[in-house]
TrEMBL record:
Annotated family: Belongs to the Rieske iron-sulfur protein family.
Primary localization class, coarse: membrane
Superkingdom of the source species: Bacteria
Protein topology in the membrane: Multi-pass membrane protein
Role of this protein: Iron-sulfur subunit of the cytochrome bc1 complex, an essential component of the respiratory electron transport chain required for ATP synthesis. The bc1 complex catalyzes the oxidation of menaquinol and the reduction of cytochrome c in the respiratory chain. The bc1 complex operates through a Q-cycle mechanism that couples electron transfer to generation of the proton gradient that drives ATP synthesis.
Name of the gene this protein is made from: qcrA
Protein name: Cytochrome bc1 complex Rieske iron-sulfur subunit
UniProt cross-references to Pfam families, sorted A to Z: QcrA_N, Rieske
Length: 355
């Protein structure tokens, strides 16, 4: 039995009333239009709408309580406390509490907004043809009118419970960030004004220890043109606070022929041409490690601030704001280099309380 394929046609189909007509035979990619709008239960059942409103409000209230819990956790839980949480294992109690409460606070705001939009706000689809980016006066007026209509249909003004709880949750969440500013404190007080060399006094000088050998240093060990790094005696690398302390205590020693030292006050703080300067750049605190012995210039590798160590370590190039602080040194009866006091001024970059 033969079959004439030329007579086959695809049946025509149409979308719902008011929607685009579906194309017929020959265009499989035609716009099928929008399906017929189906009302939600909350659109036809006021009890369901009230129930959804209470659910949304409950989420916003939970968000508020979680924010309060975040603040309470930050204040009450010791930062060093460790707890066992299955399946995470041993974790910081403070970090876990902060993460959990902040996560709940943000999640409930988002979930409440989504639930509100899906159950109570208008869900009528409004298709619009593409148009030039710049709108004419009629379109702008239409957009404003649609915005007003959407605002009215959202129930923001009419559903006071949702509105008030949303405002409450949104107002409390930023407090989490405000409380975190507490991590900027407590205030440093005098901690930035002094270093580990503060333990040194003329009566009880503090020996200089070589950073590489971890041994005290003698003056004859430092030759003219050399650059050596030192730390105060008693500061060990396995100390818990070593990184914090070395960031202030790090010292660099240079030996310059006395006749080449331009700043006489700087020469008096040294010993037989050996000068001790802070290794911490006065720009942003990078460690200085590059030295040119012919010019006596020290260069910071981060932003190229250059200091003349033969002239009181004054800044001759770059963004650094002031010279490197100098440490007064001498030798003890055994010939070892020692410090007799702290730096005359704070080391490192400028800060508000800097004198």
């Amino acid at each position: 039995m033969s079959h004439d394929m030329s007579e086959d046609k695809l049946p025509e189909s149409h979308g719902s009333a008011g929607q685009h007509e579906v194309a017929t035979h020959g265009d499989p990619f035609a716009d099928p239009g929008l399906p017929a709008h189906e009302p939600r239960r909350t659109d036809i059942d006021e009890r369901a709408a009230k129930r959804a409103e209470r659910q949304v409000s409950l989420m916003f209230v939970v968000s508020m309580l979680a924010t309060v819990g975040f603040i309470a956790s930050y204040v009450a839980i010791d930062a060093d406390k460790i707890v066992y949480i299955f399946p995470l294992g041993h974790v910081s109690a403070l970090n876990f509490a902060l993460g959990l409460t902040l996560g709940v606070a943000l999640f409930c705001i988002g979930a409440g907004a989504v639930h509100w939009a899906r159950t109570l706000m208008s869900d009528h689809e409004l298709p619009a043809e593409r148009h030039p980016i710049e709108a004419d006066d009629e379109v702008r007026a239409d957009v404003i009118e649609q915005f007003k209509t959407g605002a009215a249909e959202s129930g923001f003004g009419r559903r006071k419970m949702i509105r008030n709880t949303l405002i409450g949750s949104m107002a409390l969440v930023p407090l989490s960030g405000v409380v975190l500013l507490r991590d900027l404190g407590p205030l440093p007080e005098k901690k930035l004004q002094h270093t580990g060399w503060d333990l040194a006094t003329p009566e009880h000088p503090l020996p200089l220890v070589n950073m590489n050998t971890n041994k005290p240093m003698k003056a004859e060990d430092i030759v003219v043109g050399s650059l050596t790094f030192a730390k105060p005696e008693g500061l060990e690398e396995d100390d818990e606070t070593f990184q914090q302390q070395i960031a202030k205590d790090a010292l660099m020693l240079v030996r310059i022929a006395p006749e080449n030292i331009k700043d006489k006050d700087s020469a008096e703080l040294g010993f037989e041409g050996i000068l001790a300067y802070s290794k911490i750049c006065t720009h942003v605190g990078c460690p200085i490690s590059l030295y040119e012995q012919q010019t006596h210039h020290a260069l910071c590798p981060c932003h190229q601030s250059t200091f003349d160590l033969a002239d009181g370590a004054r800044v001759i190039f770059g963004p650094a704001g002031h010279p490197l602080p100098q440490l007064k040194i001498t030798t003890n009866e055994e010939g070892f280099l020692v410090a007799t006091g702290d730096f005359a001024e704070p080391v490192g970059p400028s800060f508000w309380e800097r004198s």
